[in-house]
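Batch 3, record 17
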Amino acid sequence: MARVTLKGVNKSFGKVEVIRDVDLEIDNGEFVVFVGPSGCGKSTLLRLISGLENLSSGEIFIADRPVTDLPPSKRGIAMVFQSYALYPHMTVFHNMAFSLDLEGKSKKEIRERVEAAAKILQMEHLLDRRPAALSGGQRQRVAIGRAIVRNPDVFLFDEPLSNLDAALRHDTRVEIAKLHRQLEATTIYVTHDQVEAMTLADKIVVLKDGEVMQVGTPMELFHTPANEFVAGFLGSPKMNFFDGVLASASDNSGHFNGEGLDIEGVRLVSTTKNNGDQIRLGIRPQHLAFDPDGPLKGTITLVEQLGTETVLELVTDHGTPFRFASPENVEVLVGQLVAFRFDPQSAHLF
Amino acid sequence: MTRTFRNVVLALIVVIWVLPFIALVTTSLRSETASKTSGFWTAFTPTELGHRFGTHDKGKTEPFVTMSGNIFERLNHDRESYEVAGDVTSILFKGRLPDPDKPGKTKLIRKLIFAGEVMDVRGGEFVFQSSGDFTWTFPEATAPKPKNLDAFINQSPVFGTDAYIEVLFENKNVPNALISSFIVTIPATIIPITIAAFAAYAFAWMRFPGRDWLFVIVVSLMVVPTQLAFLPVLQGFSGIASWATSLNAWMTDCEITKTCQVASKSFASLWVTHTAFGLPLAIYLLRNYIVGLPKELLESARIDGASHLKIFTRLIIPLSVPALASFSIFQFLWVWNDLIVALYIGPADAADLVFPIRLQKQLGTFKDQLHLLNASAVISMIVPVIVFLSMQRYFVRGLLAGSVKGG
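Prediction for the assembled complex:
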C-alpha cells in the first residue's frame, strides 16, 4: 500500500512528445484507471511508472520514495501485461516463484508465498501445469498471481482483459474488483474500455494526446465533465452536441442559442467564452425525455431495440444527428417526428 | 496437376540425394570381389556367378562306391563371411568323350550339365540337384582324387561387415581420424555458439552506442570467403607459435629434451579458425531469432528483478533451443566435412588427420578396394546423421505456446 505521486512528468520519443506535464496524486489503496483513446499515452504513462521507460523530465514517487532513477524491480511494483507474458518453459509454480527466486528467498518461503497467492486466486490445482495447457482466463489469472506473489506496493495492469472474450472479460473484471477489495493495494489500471473504467475505478484519469483531461470519480466525470472530450468519451451512447452561440452568461450557467433551441440556465463548463462566442451544447441521450411541446425536435432515422434499452438515432431540422436512449421499450417508427425536453442543469456548454 | 508435378519433382530430388548413399552403403557391405566385378544395383537380386569347388578334401583316401555331399558346403567350408547360397543351375563339364564322327577316338568337350543330368567324372556318375546336393557313384569301391568343378550358381544376395571390421580394427587410421574429427568438431561447434548466443542477445535487447552499425559489420563479414583469409590467418598462427615457442623455452626446461617447438598448425588453431568463420552466421541467425521473442516476456522478467545475465540464462537460452539446435547442426556439418581449412591450418601429423583428409588419402591407398573406401566414407557420414537425428527433437514447434496471447 502506497501513495504514488507524479510531478511534471514528460516523455518524448525523439521529437514526438508522448506525455506532457502530467501531475498526479494517487492515494493509498486507490484503484485508479487511466482511460483514453488509443495513442493517448496511457500505456506509456503506466510504463513510466513501472520503470520500463525512462522519464524525459519530471519525478515519480512511490510510497514517498523517489523512484525516478530506480530499475523496475526496485520500485515496489508488479505489472500484469495485456499479453500475459508468462514464461512458457516454466510451470505455473515457477512462473510465480521466479521473482522470489531471483531475490534469493528460501525454498520454504517461496512455496508458502506462491501457495498463498494461488489460494487467493483459487488456482492451486494449476500450479504444476505449463502455460500452454491453460485457457486464456487461467493464463491471465497466473499473470495476476505472479504479481500478487511479489507483494508489491502498487499493482499495474496494462489492458489485462483485452485478450479475453466478452463473457470471460466480465467475470475477470468482477474478480479484479474483488481482489482489490481483498488486498487493498494501490492499483493503476490502463484500459480503453470505458465500461471497465466506470465499473472498476475509484478514480478515473482521462488522457488525450499525452495530457490529462480530467481526474475524478466515475460519477464526477459522468455528470460534470471538464471538457467536451471527456463528455464525449465517457457514456454510451455518446453525448449529443449542438453548435450555437452563448447569448449570455452568469457565474456558472449560460444561455444557449442555436439549432432552433433557446435555453437558459445551462451548466457552463467553459471559462473562456464571452457573450456572443460560438459554443457547443452537450446533452446525454439518457437525459432527454419525450414531450410533444419540448424544444428539441427530430426525425427518427433508426431504431435500435437492445432489450435493456432503446436507442433512437435522429436528425434535427438543421441536419444535426443526435441520439435518444431510454430504458423502456419505445414504440416509434422510422421517419416519425418527435420532440424532447431536458433539464438545462443536466446539459453542458463547452 | 501441379500437385502431382510437385510430388514427382520432390520424389526425383529425394532419389537423386539418396541414391549415392545407397550405393555407398551397399558397396561397403559387399565382398571385395563382388564390389569389384559388378555394380551395386546387382547386389539385391540373385546373380548367376561361377564358383569352383573341389569334390572332397585331398587327404581323404578311403574307397567308396557312392559319395554324397553338398556343393554349398564344399564352397563355404573355408569362408567366414559372404557365404554362397542359392540354386546351382549348371556345372561346366570339361573332358574327353568318344567322338561320334571318328570311332575309337575321343574328343575334348565343354558342355553345361544341368541339375539332375548324369555327368562322367573320373569314371563315376556325378549327379547334382539345384539345392547343391550331389552324389558320385562308381561301379565298385574306388578312392578317386578330388576333382575341381566349375558350378554356375544363381546366387542369393549376400552382405557382410568385413570391410567395416577391416577399416576400424586392422589399422588405426580410421579410428584416429574419427577421434581427431571429434576433437576438432565438438569445440568448434560449442565455442562459436556460446559466443554467438551472448552476442545475439546483446544485439537484440541491449542498448549500446553503435549497436546497429556493429551488427551490419558482423553480418557483412559473412561474405568474406575462407580462402581469402588463409594467408593472414596462417601468418598469425605461426607468429603466435614462435612466440609460444620462446615462452616455452624460457618458462620450462624443454631445451634438454628438445621439445620446445610449438606447432603453428594444431587443433586449437582449427578451433579458432572455425569459430571465427562460423560466428557471423551464428550471430545473425540467433539475433534474428532472439529479437523475435516477445518483448513483454523480457519486460516481465525485468520487473521480476532479473538482470541481463539472468534473463539470458533463464529465459533466452531455454526459449532459443530450436535456433541453437539448428545452428549447431549447421556448424557441426560444416566443420565435420571441412577439408580445406583442416588441410591448411589443421595438425599435419598422420595420427591427427581429420576424417576428410583421411578419406582423401584413402582414395590413393584403397584405389582397388572400393568396399574399404566406401566403408570409411559411410563411417564418416554416419556421425552427422546421428547428430542430426538426435538434434531433431529440439526442433519443437510452438515452443512459445502459452506465453503470450491466444495460442
